[in-house]
Amino acid sequence: MTVMTTQNNAGIDDRHNAQSPAAQQDTAHLASSSADTLQDFDDAVETPEFLQSGTSPFPEPDREPVGSDWELEPGVKYLVALDVDGTLVDHDGVMSPEVKDAALAAIAAGHHLVISTGRSRGATLPVCEQLGLEEGFAVASNGGITLQLDPSAPDHYRVLDAVTFNPGPALQALKDALPTAKFALETADGNFFATERFQDRSFGIQAIGTDIHQLAELDAVRLVVYSSEDTPENFADAIEAAGLHGVAYAVGWTAWLDVAAAGVSKASALEQVRRHLGVDPAHTVAVGDGRNDVEMLDWAARGVAMGQAPDEVVAVAREVTNSVYDDGAARILRSLV
């Protein structure tokens, strides 16, 4: 695994190149030109309703845990990939004491816990800190960013991999299909740019206000689309009708979409981490609840769906644990010690 590799993925063309000076200048110029209006943007930030305290994007759980023939091999140090929202934390972003204690026990047992989330690096690192993870790896932005945790590095981490793509075609198709949607874009350097006063806690940083034309000129690690005007069903239909090509994407619990470079997922990043650590594929565990976890659960030898996961997520899992409301992640972590 090469330190700070930026892969620019424009669909079928896989080019491993550092971000161009022109792209860096565009990002810096946009951040600078937006600085004067950032305060007004801050004051008018809109938090999507489903992320406000007291509201839940997760359906009520209706499944009982389903086990498998998996058995713990004594002395083996497993790679354990853990989704965050809906797995480690509830819809208010709160990690229960039981989940935290179980994670700490798994770390003490020597297992490689890897946070694997759709959140950006800025929102992923606090979860690592909460668990006391000072070394190891984390996957952010649905596989677009891979971090190595290192207490000796600046900011206590370094970026090992950043996979970018040209968002222009996807933006145009999505804008046509969802004319009232809001858009946000994450760049390889960790900045966020957004339209329509769109802000979300998964960004981990204040988004800089801009317009969709400027977004289309940037290289993206992740493109986020949210609509407050569409039902989840209508939103999903519009995404399908948009006919996105050359990118990977996952629809969330609500009218929410994450877009990444073609071929990029949590699983693609985790496979690189597995090889770096030298962990046998048979010694991999993953726990998640969302559609962006499907590839990860299929990749792991022991893929575990949370109890509130939708049917298509459960279908690829080897096991089903309790819901996030009943500390389902803790149940799996405890099985490792």
For the structure shown, list the relevant keywords.
single chain, 337 residues, alpha/beta, Rossmann fold, Hypothetical Protein, Haloacid Dehalogenase-like Hydrolase, Chain: A, domain 2, 2 domains, ten-stranded mixed sheet, six-stranded mixed sheet, disordered N terminus
Q: What's the rounded overall pLDDT mean?
A: 83
CATH topology of the largest domain: Rossmann fold
Specify the biggest β-sheet. 10 strands, mixed
Beta fraction: 15-25%
- From the N-terminal CA to the C-terminal CA, the straight-line distance is 29 Å
Overall shape: globular
Number of domains: 2
Radius of gyration, CA atoms, in whole angstroms: 19 Å
Q: Tell me the name of the CATH class of the largest domain.
A: Alpha Beta
Q: How helical, in percent, are the residues? A: 25-40%
Lateral strand order in the biggest sheet? 2-1-7-6-5-4-3-14-15-16
CATH superfamily of the largest domain: HAD superfamily/HAD-like
Organism: Kocuria subflava
Protein name: HAD family phosphatase
GO molecular function: magnesium ion binding; phosphatase activity
Pfam family, one: Hydrolase_3
How would you explain this protein's 3D organization?
The chain is α/β, with parallel strands linked by helices. Helices cover 29% and strands 21% of the residues. The protein has 2 domains: 79-162 and 265-334, Rossmann fold, CATH 3.40.50.1000; 164-261, Hypothetical Protein, Haloacid Dehalogenase-like Hydrolase, Chain: A, domain 2, CATH 3.30.1240.10. It has helices spanning 21-43, 97-108, 121-130, 168-177, 212-215, 232-242, 266-277, 294-299, 311-314, 328-334, and strands at 5-9, 14-16, 79-82, 112-116, 136-140, 145-149, 157-164, 182-186, 192-194, 208-209, 222-226, 247-251, 256-261, 284-288, 302-305, 319-320. α2 packs parallel to α10 (328-334). The relative contact order is 0.19. The model is unreliable at 1-55 (pLDDT under 50).
